[in-house]
Amino acid sequence: MLFLIYRKDKPNHLQVRLENHKKHLEYLAPYGNRIVIGGPTLGLNSATRDEEMTGSFLIIDVDSWEAVDDFVKNDPFTRAGLFSTTIIERWKHGKHTESSAAMPSNS
Fold first, then answer.
1. Structure confidence by residue, pLDDT tens digits, 48-89
2. Are 33 and 45 in contact (CB under 8 A)?
3. What would the 3-class secondary structure string for 47-104 be?
């Protein structure tokens, strides 16, 4: 099952993120073949520096709600208290094309 995980950093917790980044990447390594996409969310500016990070977004393929819950709970970022909000939802990959996205005509 695919799950979307969106987590928002607590304000003024960039240092917590930076201090735990290496452990977080090591934690993700065994899940490499299960992670569809992921990375940090960024602030309002157009820069992509670490100082702009505001949270995390990840789509992962695991077998159950329990598995995704364990994945989130054991992440070093979670254990370090980085996040103020965590949203987990099942996710369905939409396949959109120009023709399927067009609105049907009523005439």
1. 666 788 999 999 999 999 999 999 999 999 999 999 999 999
2. no
3. CCCHHHEEEEEEEEECCCHHHHHHHHHHCHHHHCCCEEEEEEEECCCCCCCHHHHCCC
Fold for 2-92, please state it. Alpha-Beta Plaits (3.30.70)
Backbone torsions φ then ψ of 28, nearest 5 degrees: -70, -25
Residue type for position 84: S
Q: How many CB atoms lie within 10 A of CB 7?
A: 22
User: CA 98 to CA 90: how far, in whole Å?
Assistant: 25
3-state secondary structure of 18: helix
